[in-house]
Input
Amino acid sequence: MQHESSATFKLVYTSTSSTSSTSSQQVTLEQMPPDQAFRTNTGEVLFDGSKTYYCSISSGSAPSCVSISGDQNPVAGLMQVYNGATYVQAMEGWQSELAAGITGYHLSFSSATFAGQPSECVQWDYQGSSAKYCVTSSGVLAYVGGGASSGTTSFELTSYSTSVSPSDFSLPNGATVSTAS
Output
């Protein structure tokens, strides 16, 4: 995902849990350097190269944002969570465990497509627990899933685009903005 640090993109992920009574949640990551955005159902973090805006969104009230000046970019750290390289390291660790011959440990490889992006996947199974990681050929996290007999959780890339609107980096409509002291 090294080239992604200077690329323009919009990634939408959907998170689901078999043990949660709430519906699925969405996470959106967008970048058009220097602008970056991280959005969830309840808020967003926007970075414009010199200021960061933390915005809370709740139904029934106007969005409220707090601005913080400075070139420190908290969104960059959030982007790293979705960097496929993070998960490739975990996959390499699983290969080491398999090579060690741990009884009951199983590792399988597959190909899949997420949001139209070809991806490579690794699934790890051990004593009733499992995990599956998939990374697109461009190095973007495409899927994380797994669990145990008590429940499963998945986080899946559901939309991928290299077309981003500058308006996506604007503050939410009707937002009140305060400055952090």
In short: The chain is about 15% helix and 50% strand.
